[in-house]
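Dear U.,

For the methods section draft, I wanted the exact inputs and outputs in one place so we can describe them consistently. I've listed the two proteins in the order they'll appear in the manuscript figures. Please don't edit the C-alpha cell lines directly; just add comments below if something needs changing.

First protein:
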Amino acid sequence: MPNLAVANNVLRQILKRHKLWANLQGDIKFEREHCDVGKALTCEEEKKLLAACTSNALLNAVVTLALNTALRKNEIRTLRWSQIDFEKRTVTVGKSKTAAGTGRVIPLNQPAFDALVKWAGRLVESSAEDYAFPACEAAGIERKHPDRERIDPSRPITSWRSAWRAALKRAGLQLRFHDLRHTCITKLAESLASEQTLMAISGHVSRSMIEHYSHIRMDAKRKATDAIVDGGVNQNVNQVQVASSGASAKSLN
C-alpha cells in the first residue's frame, strides 16, 4: 500500500495539471496519515498492569486474554462460549475487523486458559451461545457476588472503560487497551515466530501490517547484539587456537 502522504500529493498534482485544484481545494480534505503505531509494554509495565487488575475479575480476564492472544478489544467483547474449546485449549474468533481475522483459531497458552476457566467459574449457568462477557450494567459483575438479575448473557458487554482507567491509574501507566495487542505481537516477534505464524494469530494479511504492529523492544535488541559479540569472541578464540596449533606444527617440522 502506498504511503498516504505520497498518494495525497499525486492526486493533488493530477488535479493541478487538469486545472481543477483551484476550484476544489477548499472542499477537499485529505485524510491524515496516522503516525501513532502504538506501544508495546515492557515486562515491568505488564507486571504493574496485571497487578492493578487483580482486584477486578472482569478486567483481569480481558487484559490477560488480550496480552496472550493478540485479540482485538471487540473480538474479546463479542466472544461467545461456543467459540472457546476448553478441551483443545483454543478460541475461534468471530466476526473480525478484517476477512483474514474472521474465523482464525488461536491456541490458549496457560495464562489465557487459566483466566478463561476462572471467569467461566463465575458464570456457571451460561449456555454455549451466551456471551462470555455479557451485558452487566450496574450488576457489579466484577464482584464476588454480582446482581445476577442485571446480567444479560444474550448481549455483549458494552465497555469496561471505567475499570480500565482505574487500573491504569493504580498502575501509574498511560496506554490504550489496543496496546495490549501490540505487546502480544511484539512478544511473538521476539520469540522468533515465523511471519506466517504471526499473521495467523494476529489476523493480518500483509508484512507491512505485521511491521506496523510489532515493535522489537530494547531488551530483545540488546540480547541479540550481545549474542553476536559472544559468538564473535568464541569464533576468534577458536581461530587463534587453530592458528597456534598450525604454528606449533610448523615449528616441530
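Second protein (the one for the lower panel):
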Amino acid sequence: MKKVLLYFLFFSIGYSALAEVAYEVTAKAWSALGSKNWDAVIAHANKAIRTWGPQARETNRRLKGYASSKEAIKYGNLNEVGTCLMLKGDALRQKGDIKGAIAAYELLLRDFKYAQVWDPKGWFWKPSESARKNLSKLNASAAPFKLKVAKRHFTSEQLKLPGKKGICLTMRKTGEPGSAQQNMSKLKMVNPYWSYSWGWDQVPSQPAKVEFVPMSWGAWSVDGLRKGLQKSVMPHIQSGKVKRFLGFNEPDKPEQANMPYQAALKYWPQLEALKVPLCSPACANPEGINDNSVQGVRGTWMKDFMAEADRRGYRVDYTGVHWYGGTHVQHFKEKMRRIYEKYGRRPILITEFAPADWEARTLAQNRHKSHMVLAFMKEVLPWLERQDWVAGYAWFSFGIKEAVGHTSALYDKNGNLAACGRYYRSITTQNPDGDQSIGR
C-alpha cells in the first residue's frame, strides 16, 4: 500500500483538477483490488474509461511509441485509463469472467497501449505488457476452444513438404501487376521448396523443384467451386503434380475472402473430396485474441470453424496461420505453440508472416527497423526449421514502399535481394541456421 500511495503522490504533483480526479479514481481501483473487492474495481475502472477514455484514446493515437521517463508524466489521463483497464481485466479474471477479462485487456492493447505507470523506485512499467502476458495465459487455458488431438488421415511422410521454406507471390497474367513474368524471377531468387499464389492455376514456368500448392482463395457457390476444382485442380492431383491444398484466405477479414465460418463449413466437404492433405483456412486472427499481430481483425472465426469441423468429423490436416506482429521473438514462438496446441496439434503451415507496424503511415514511422527484422529472422527461421510440428512457412515480402511492412521486404527497389532476402535464401534443410553473417 505504501508503494501505491507514493505513486499517487507523484502523479498529484502538477496535475490539473481534472487529472487529480482521474488519479483519485485509479487510487480507489487500486485500493479495491488490494481488498479483493472485484466489483468495486470494475466500477471505478468503468468510471475512468467513461470520463477520460476519449481524450486518452486520442492521446494514444498521436503517440508513435512509449514516451520517455521525462515525458510520460505529461500523459496523465492516458496513464490512468490504461492502468484502470489493466485493473479491470485483473478483477474480471479473479471473478472468473474470462471473456470480460480478455475484452478489457484487448481494449487496453488496442486503444491505450502507450499508457505507463510510475514506480517509486524511479522507473515506469507498462500496463499493456501485463495485459499481453495475461492474455497469453488466458488463451492457453481456454479449455472450451482446445480441440482433442486430431486424428491423422495421412502419414507424416505424406504431410511433409519437400522443405519447410516457401514463398508467397502472385502469378497473374502478363500485363497485370504482380504477373508471373515479374515475380517468377523473385521466386527463384530465394530458392524455396514450395510456393503458392493465392489461387489454384498452374504457372507453366514454375520450377520443377519447387512444389506449387494450390489454394481456394474463397468460394461463393457450391457449383462454382466444384467446377473450378474439377477443371483446374483434379487433373494435377491425378498426375501427382499437386500433393496438398490450401483452404480459404483470411475469411475473417472483409478485404479478403470475407465469409462466415458456416459458409466455409458448407464448402469444406468439396475440398476434402480432393483426397490430398488439406490446410485449414488461414485467418488474419488465428487465435481469437486481439494482439498486435492480427491486422486489427477481431472475432472468433477460427475457433468457431475448427470446433464445428471437429464436431462434424471433417478432415483438416494442417492448421493455417497468418502472423504480422512485431520483432519480439519469444512472443512469436509462444503464439505459434499456442495455436498448435489449441487446434488439435495438427502440423501448422504459416502461409503468411512478417513483422509489420500497422500504425505506420509513412516509411519513417515504421518502428520495426530493417536491422531488427533481420535479427528476428535469424532467430525465428532456424527455430521453425527445428520444430517437428511446423510443416512449413512462407515469408510475406511487403513492397519496398509500403509503410507498414517495407522493412520486412525481401527485395530492394531494383528487384534484387535485400539483406532479409539474402538471409532467407540462405536457409536450407541442410543449413537451418542460414548465413548468420549476412547484414553485418
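Candidate sentences for the figure legend, describing the second protein: The longest strand covers residues 348-353. Confidence is low (pLDDT under 50) at residues 1-20.

Thanks,
Y.
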